[in-house]
Design goal:
This protein is of the alpha/beta class. Helix content is about 30%, strand content about 30%. GO terms for molecular function: methyltransferase activity.
């Protein structure tokens, strides 16, 4: 990793950018730091969230976090699983390694990333730098009432 999360100023810059784009998480409840340097990032986020977990493995509970951050290789199944951990209104900041970026340029992975983001209700997103992607999960109504279905009655 090239040290995106090396100090409080880096964290401030990321959150400044998210605020500028309206991508801050709607709640400051829980955050997950995943992957390399997770413990360092957990310390840097201290005071911004009520609970902060640092892990080298992804938890199994979907919709459990208001913010997810990771330093990772571009791994599409892991990305999909990570986005499922966000609550509606939650946000993320993903930092990809340079080697991962070189592989991504050679393949069709960027289109696949876009599909994964849309499938997980991530409509607000921005590629801040080639190695940094930020975004926010859309707020949705729990249930949209369906109009009653009309039945056609055959006339005699």
């Amino acid at each position: 990793m090239n040290g995106l999360w090396l100090g409080p100023t880096a964290v401030d810059l990321i959150f400044e950018r998210m605020q500028l784009r309206g991508m801050l998480p709607t709640r400051a409840g829980s955050a997950l730091c995943y992957g390399g340097n997770a413990e360092d990032r957990r310390l840097q986020l201290a005071g911004l969230f009520d609970e902060i977990a640092a892990s080298l493995t992804l938890p199994e509970q979907p919709g459990a976090f208001d913010f997810v951050t990771a330093e990772m290789e571009l791994d599409l199944p892991v990305l999909e699983k990570m986005l499922k951990l966000l609550r509606p209104g939650g946000a993320f900041a993903l930092h990809f390694s340079h080697l991962s970026l070189l592989r991504r340029r050679r393949s069709n992975d960027m289109k696949k990333v876009g599909v994964i983001l849309c499938r997980n209700d991530i409509w607000e997103r921005e590629q801040v730098r080639p190695d940094l992607l930020i975004g926010k999960k859309m707020m949705r109504n729990v249930e949209i009432p369906q109009p009653p279905r009309l039945r056609l009655v055959a006339s005699r």
